[in-house]
Specification:
With 462 residues, this protein is α+β, with helices and mostly antiparallel strands. It contains 12 helices and 21 strands. It starts with 6 loop residues before the first strand and ends with a helix.
């Protein structure tokens, strides 16, 4: 029997936890087999602050995905985000003893390991190293150095750094939920894989993923990741502002934001009013939609302006010239009415809403094509690259026919009957196909090493 490559992504967000099971169909598109969603109770601004509650939320999402798909989850690729994430630019080089010898994977690994030894702040660790451009003996702008010759191999790197304790806490939650950690991916990179085209990455594009607790930024140019940033504000801050500004409870504030919220205050008329039921028999509250949109507008402007500062830091004075493809908005916050127009007004850059439907099979549920699930879809795509069997089909064994013997009641004993049988299959060995770019190889191998590091830490902690 041919082995299925079943992939699983786990998006641990501030407002929701999503477990998604998928596989590639015969046309190379992503077919979603099952999805599970639960309210995220132990995560604040992308960081786990209550391990017990996070474990319960993960287990609930995983169980729902398993029930919907008929597959038992073994391991997952998890997204890393949160306000503790920061990125730095770094250049490094190695001198090769034989300049006539062809540059190979060993030389790239040597250069990567050198970058990994960079001194970080206390409690921080390098979690991601992304090569940008290589230089060989002064010849610059080389994207693929393998196969070339030279004495000095130099490269610029985009280095992502995070708090080691925060990442290990995520690892603890997953392990305690009864599943294995097979890979880590920076969440803005997962979202970018799901919603950006290669043409946009070549032309220059800024991806803004507006989540519940954080807003993630990833900038691409010439097909290469150039800058990442995490802004510690998201949709939850807007909900809090509505709650305080209208003196209502959080549940009502969230409902108001989703149903009637707008990022553009001029859209609503003064006489447009929505009535909110009072608590425990109190009089209902009447809220002006114009005032509601003013509250939302003020906070969204603040978030977008902070993101634009990061974009300008990369593109200097006029990022519009560098980022021809403009801005792509995704995440739950991208569903806010008129946010596209507001972003265009503030930045002066072309903007579109990013949907992950380009990579999904044609018969996919419309809900999965929402920007809300962009990160989860990207994580499943990343899991497919790992080429592992992350879930196995649950098969129910048929009862055998037996001769009926009616024993006296006093002779009947309780017997445990197996309800279901899970067919375990051997893990597929990871093989990197010929033709993969150096960036992809490094991205995979580095995360493999870091995942092993987390597993060792968790084993020793026990």
């Amino acid at each position: 029997m041919e082995k299925e490559n079943i992939a699983v992504g786990l998006d641990i967000g501030t407002t929701k936890i999503v477990a998604m099971i998928g596989r590639k169909n015969e046309y190379g598109k992503l077919e979603i087999l099952g999805i599970g969603k639960s309210k995220s109770l132990g995560v604040k601004r992308g960081v786990v602050d209550n391990i017990t509650q996070t474990i319960q939320s993960i287990q609930q999402a995983v169980q729902e995905a398993e029930t919907n798909s008929g597959y038992k989850i073994k391991d997952v690729v998890v997204g890393i985000a949160g306000q503790h994430i920061r990125s730095i630019q770094h250049s490094d080089y190695i001198s090769r003893s034989n300049a006539e010898e062809v540059i190979g994977d060993k030389d790239i690994d040597l250069l990567i390991n050198q970058v990994h030894k960079l001194a970080m702040l206390p409690g921080e660790e390098i979690i991601h190293v992304l090569p940008q451009e290589f230089k060989i003996d002064g010849q610059s702008e080389i994207k693929e150095p393998i196969g070339m010759c030279g004495g000095r191999l130099e490269s610029s790197f985009h280095v992502v750094v995070g708090q080691a304790s925060s990442i290990r806490n995520v690892g603890r939650c997953i392990q305690s939920s009864g599943i294995e950690l097979s890979g880590l991916t920076l969440e803005p990179l997962a979202s970018a894989d799901a919603v950006l085209s290669q043409e946009e990455k070549e032309a220059g594009v800024a991806l803004i993923d507006i989540g519940g607790g954080t807003t993630d930024l990833a900038i691409f140019k010439d097909g290469i990741i150039r800058h990442t940033a995490v802004i510690p504000f998201g949709g939850n801050v807007i909900t809090d502002d509505i709650k305080e500004g209208c003196s209502i409870i959080e549940k009502q504030a969230e409902l108001l934001k989703v149903k009637f919220g707008s990022a553009w205050p001029g859209e609503n008329k003064d006489n447009e009013i929505v009535s909110i039921p009072g608590l425990r028999g109190r009089e209902p509250k009447e809220i002006s939609l114009k005032n509601l949109s003013k509250i939302i507008h003020a906070r969204v402007v603040e978030i977008i302006e902070q993101v634009f500062v990061e974009i300008k830091a990369y593109g200097h004075e006029d990022p519009r010239r560098k980022l021809i493809a403009g801005i792509v908005l995704t995440g739950g916050g991208a569903q806010l009415n008129h946010i596209k127009q507001l972003v265009e007004y503030i930045t002066g850059m072309d903007t579109r809403i990013g949907y992950p439907n380009e990579h999904l099979a044609g018969d996919s549920d419309e809900e999965i094509s929402s920007p809300l699930y962009a990160t989860a879809v990207g994580l499943v795509m990343n899991s497919i690259e790992n080429n592992t069997q992350s879930a196995v089909r649950i098969s129910f064994s048929a009862p055998e026919k037996v001769n009926v013997y009616r024993a006296p009641v006093e002779q009947i004993q309780e017997v445990e009957v197996p309800v279901q049988q899970i067919e375990e299959e051997e893990r597929v060995q990871v093989k990197i196909p010929v033709g993969e770019s150096t960036e992809t190889k490094i991205r995979k191998s580095f995360f493999d090493k870091y995942v092993d590091k987390i597993k060792d830490f968790l084993d020793n902690a026990e």
